[in-house]
């Protein structure tokens, strides 16, 4: 009862703020437009949460939505037991492994994401824990705050894009609101909602803001948000900015020359420095982690190493309970020493009396597809590039496993590519600055799609992670559309 009253009061209050605030008042648009969008996105948000709580994952395997909601509450509860430990965990101070063992025993996402300084998964759990002070643990209230963040990001994005396209404001807004990937992923309670705010700030600073002081603040906040919640997007922006800086330094004389210099620098960095080894190692680790989650299996911890057993080998193990296991028959497993980050390798293990502790159990992913393991080999990474980019561009395929949502994604990408081709064929003459922006966006998109394709072996994962790339393609279409308003 209290949740319903609280939700109603807060919803009406936010609706009124959006209706009256100058930030949401845009010339050429009715003042009721954005309040209506807020209502629409809230309904989509409830659908998003309902879908992932009931259909998003295999039976018995909690979705990320459920885990983030629960682990945010679990972290928030630490404050009431030990405020000092809560703030240590909130700001990543002290021995996080010890604190997690003490307070987060049921938090799968928190405990399975290592001790990295910048951990976007833990950062989202931290954000959820802060919202729980306001929401009193009610999921509907948490969703409302995410929808507020989402519509602020949408307005920032709209204002920026409205400056570079001749599409009428209402049509532009309609496209942004109804674009499936943007609508679905930015209406939930995951990282993508905060990513939309970061992208909106970046695009707004790039195309809309005229005051340098405000522009710098927007860029700074945008980078912080992307750094905290999706650092790989920020990494993908760096090559695009590098190209644009080269173009500016050449005094905007030649797109071709700028592209040649940029390509030469990238080749030198990859083949002339140790960045090649570091990049290959990071991608290999991420790819291995993606496969271990996507393929049904069991992660266990021994005294000095970690093992991963596929589901087909479970009959060679003896389970004592949900947390302890023993090897009873000779079997194969993926092995990694606990002191080494990489490489992992397949080994044969003889029966042993050693009791292994279960770290996690995966039921697998519905939309898993086979990919070639990189195994820390740069030549193999290069061989994987064509399939990686192709997977990011076109998956899921109609004949693959997956939920009914895959058909929406299939229609989205093919309609988007058709409109892109149609717009290119009818494009007007572009000036050099517009061309440099388009090339920069293409570099960002290719970098993003390459990284996603190299790592992921799950179509559903690709659909979620590539939405900034699809938005980038949409922005290219907007720039190419130069008919008079």
Topology diagram in text:
Layout: H1 2-20, H2 33-54, H3 64-81, H4 83-90, H5 96-103, H6 108-111, H7 120-135, H8 139-161, H9 169-178, H10 180-185, H11 191-207, H12 212-229, H13 231-249, H14 255-272, H15 275-294, E1 297-301, E2 305-310, E3 317-319, E4 324-327, E5 331-337, E6 345-349, E7 356-362, H16 378-394, H17 405-425, H18 432-455, H19 459-465, H20 467-480
Antiparallel strand pairs: 1-2, 1-7, 2-5, 3-4, 4-7, 5-6
Helix pairs in contact: 1-2, 1-8, 2-8, 3-4, 3-7, 7-8, 8-11, 11-12, 12-13, 13-14, 13-18, 16-18, 17-20, 18-20
What does this molecule look like?
The chain contains 20 helices and seven strands. Strand 5 (331-337) and strand 6 (345-349) form a beta hairpin. With 485 residues, the chain is α+β, with helices and mostly antiparallel strands. It has a seven-stranded antiparallel beta sheet. The protein has three domains: 2-200, no CATH class; 230-239 and 274-281 and 371-480, no CATH class; 297-362. It is globular. 64% of the residues lie in helices and 8% in strands.
